[in-house]
């Protein structure tokens, strides 16, 4: 289980540390979002979070299944 957590932490650290990952997005989308009003920018932020939730839930579910399976294999 510790190896799985170390792998997860290492993967997250590697993805965050790569500057190309943080620079995703086109110039036209950025300029349109920056020229929009505060209400539109807030709506865009909420929309991004709403679209992110299913992906995070699926990732967390797979991770929990893998950890439980590893724990069951080591116990039995």
Structural class: mainly alpha
Low-confidence stretches: none
The number of strands is 0
Helicity range: over 70%
Strand percentage: under 5%
Average predicted confidence as pLDDT? 82
Give the CA-based shape: elongated
Termini Cα gap: 14 Å
Number of helices: 4
Question: What would you report as the Rg, rounded to the nearest angstrom?
Answer: 18 Å
User: Quick one: biggest sheet?
Assistant: none
| Strand and helix order | HHHH
Tell me about this structure.
With 76 residues, the chain is mostly helical. 88% of the residues lie in helices and 0% in strands. The two termini are 14 Å apart. The model has no long low-confidence stretch (mean pLDDT 82).
Layout of helices and strands, plus pairs?
Blueprint: H1 2-17, H2 19-22, H3 27-35, H4 38-75
Structural descriptors:
76 residues, 0% strand
